[in-house]
Amino acid sequence: MDRRDLLRAAAALPLLRAALPENAFAQTYPVRNITMIVPFPAGGQADLAARPVAMALERILGRPVIVDNRAGGGGGSVGNAAAARAEPDGYTLLMTLSSLAVLPEADRLFDRPVAYEVSQFMPIARVLADPTLLAVPASAPWKTAQDFVEDARKRPGQITYGSSGPYGTLHVAMEMFANSAGIKLMHVPFRGAGPALTALLSGTVQAIAAAPGTLKPQVDDGKLRVLGNCGAQRIASFPDVPTFQELGYMDVEMYIWAGLFAQSSLPAPIATRLREAMAQVMTSPDVLKAFEASGSLVAYQDAPAFSQFVAADSTRLIAAVKKIGKVE
Questions:
Q1: Is the pLDDT of residue 252 over 60?
Q2: What is the pLDDT of residues 168-189, one digit of tens each?
Q3: Domain boundaries of the chain, sorted by first residue
Q4: Which of these, 213, 211, 208, lies nearest to 187 by C-alpha position?
Q5: DSSP-derived pairing of the beta strands 298-302 and 121-131
Q6: CATH 3.40.190.150 fits domain 28-129+256-324
Q7: Is-same-fold flag (28-129+256-324; 133-229)?
Q8: Which CATH number is associated with domain 133-229?
Q9: What is the Cα–Cα distance from 29 to 14, expressed in whole angstroms?
Q10: What are the pLDDT digits (tens) for 277-320?
């Protein structure tokens, strides 16, 4: 076969693929490595969810699943956008957080180009769904959430808190609490929950709102104290920590869920294969053990239920962002 024949054959491949039924390719999926984008640095909730899931998916699918921490843009927008632009072939997945729906609204709020739209994604499975917790250094003077609020009222704008970036999950949770309590805090954004936690431990900031799995090792080591729970109910890993609703802040409810997504135009047979694999992943003893050790319990939802959950949660979070308005 000469060079012209090779070129003609190469040009015909896309036509051949289009002529074959989708399941002809799905039956062999995957045939190469899969990349799982995590739009945050290591150490945060999305990374905590991604690594045990990637290892289990690798065993089930028979191909390496490589976690790619692609932080940047504040709140995960760079990684989310990269996943949205990827080829919809099942080889680029996204493990992201509830800020997925918030960030496009923040772009519109500031009249910025929208990095991506939620409609570009197909929910595959929810993995975790933890309430955010307000944490401070164990050496801090605040023993309770009320201590924190009273001090903040005396010193508006002087207590600093870290976040994963403007309008990321941690930022929205803290601003939701601050608005309800009638206090003003100083926001210090970082590239992810991991760096924000490091800043809290080093004394660069004085508070953070983060997931139980991110905070528990530091609390167990006596380095941090948790003052409040943004969920509707207390949780097993921090049973003595009251919810903000118990404390009278009835409009404070925020969850830092992590879920696996693909592109919205992913062929249905490949989506089904991924859903079936995730159903096995979320009953894997290794995955359950990893999440339990971190203080985050599995909150698995298959695609239909997860899609409904994302729609409902996104509506609530977008309303919260509009109430918060423009902040840096």
A1: yes
A2: 888 999 999 999 999 999 999 9
A3: 28-129+256-324, 133-229
A4: 208
A5: antiparallel
A6: yes
A7: yes
A8: 3.40.190.10
A9: 17
A10: 999 999 999 999 999 888 888 999 999 999 999 999 888 888 88
